[in-house]
Amino acid sequence: MKAELNTQNISQAEDLFASNTNFILTVLPRIKLLYAIKKELKAYHDLKWSFEFDHVNINHNRVLIEYLPSFNKELALFYEIPLVQKFELRSFLGNSSVHFIDIYNFLIDNDYIRENQFTIHAEYRKIPHFILSLKVRRYQRPILNHYSSLEQDSINPIDDTILDELKRNFDLFNPIFKLIIDNFR
What we know:
The chain is of the alpha+beta class. It contains five helices and seven strands; from the N terminus they run E-H-H-E-E-E-E-H-E-E-H-H. It has a seven-stranded antiparallel sheet.
C-alpha cells in the first residue's frame, strides 16, 4: 500500500492491516507520530509526504518525503524514513546510482558539501543515498507508546528530537535540492 500521509489514509491502513502484528506494533505508531510532526512542519510546503507498507517485505515500509519542485521522475529528490525500530533519515539524489554519483561530484566540486560530510550508504539493489540522521537514532519510547495505545486522547505528543532533526536536515538539504534542479535541467 502506498498513500499520502494523512489521517484518512492512516485509518484506512489501520483497518486493512489490523491483524498484522508488525503494522500494529512498529509501523502504525511511527506513521501516526510522523503525521503529527508533518503538521508541525507546515513551513516546508515544498515537501510531499506519503507512506508505504508491504506486509510481505518489511524493508519496503517507509515514509517518503518528496521534494516537489523535482521536474522529472529520473531525477527524483526525496527523503526516506524507514518504518523500523530505530529512526533514520535518508536523502536520495535521483533514482539511479549514475545520478547519485554525478550529483555528488557536482556538489563537492562546487563546494556545496564536503567529501565525507555525510555517511553514504550503497548496497546491491539499493540506490546510493546519504544517511542524514547522525544525532538522533531512536524514537522516544513513551511517545511511541502513546500512539500505540488504543485509548488515545486528542493531544498528540511530538518527539522533539525527531522534529528538530528533520528541521535541521530540511534546512540543509532543501536548498541543495534546489541547486540540483537548477543545474541539472
